[in-house]
Amino acid sequence: GIGPREVVSTIGSTASVFDGSTGSILATSPTPGDASQYDACAPFNVDGVPGDEIVCIRSPPLQPADGERKAYVLRYDAGTKKLGVLWSKYLAPYAGGDLKALDPLGDLDGDGSIELVVATSSATDVWSTRVLDAMTGAEKATLPDRIAAGRLPLGPAKGSLLLTTSASSTFTAWSFDPATSPALAFRWTLVDTTGLTFVDPDRMRETGPVHWERQVTADLDADGVDDLVVRDVTSSALASRVSVWSAAGGQPAKLGSFEMPVGVEAARAWSLPPIGPSQSRIAVERNDGYLVLLDSKLQPANAQSALLPGIRTGGYFASGGW
Questions:
Q1: Strand boundaries in 103-252, DSSP class E
Q2: Who is most buried in 192, 210, 227, 280, counting CB within 10 A?
């Protein structure tokens, strides 16, 4: 929390903290398991005092001893120059189980404390979404038959809606209040939609090759609250429409859609800061090899013509598109 940033590395069964300016080792600690170089770790301030902790989600690609799918938090004490495990929690078995996380860290209820959200499975296609206290690992809430799908921020000091999926084309939003029972309350559902995720460049700079993605959101209506960007799933299962929904009013309100030709799908998307006079806010990668920039009205900002709908980035139909 003071001065230059440190570098944290996990490899084998050891975590190390390095001085970011000199490369000298400041502290080492055992990690809760071997092959920790595969753990998805990110810096995050979970205790509210200066200095970040390291939050890790562990799901090794090679079968270890059972009990290795877990979450844990490392804390570095600059005064004593010691690195230790703040907490570690077993979440799912390796054999027959699974562990997922999408944009897992945030303040869901706006009280200033951080929650860690994961989806766990102990049997094939049997999932639960679990909300943990990021400072202690204590479990605050559970949703059976749901897979965590990220968060939708509601604005400063207002927390976030927890997004889940229960089928490939259904999105459900939940509010979190640990003082109520149950702590997670249903808010709304979008059907015939799938999410669009992207790698947050700021998070990627902090986490390196193992990083977390998040849902594509953008404040298109300029109300100070991010709106949710999704793919609409048609009866032919092709996602040929991208839609944007606002949740600022409590229930989702559709702000607009961007239609693509029949048979063309939205492969990926990214949210963008305002760029120049076009005010491009969303970039959509089409599966025919074009990248389209959309403005706040969901109109293409870089289309040349019907034959050149955007920037040529690849695909099978290269002739005349370069």
A1: 105-106, 115-123, 126-133, 139-144, 147-153, 160-167, 170-176, 184-191, 193-195, 197-199, 213-215, 217-218, 227-232, 241-246
A2: 227
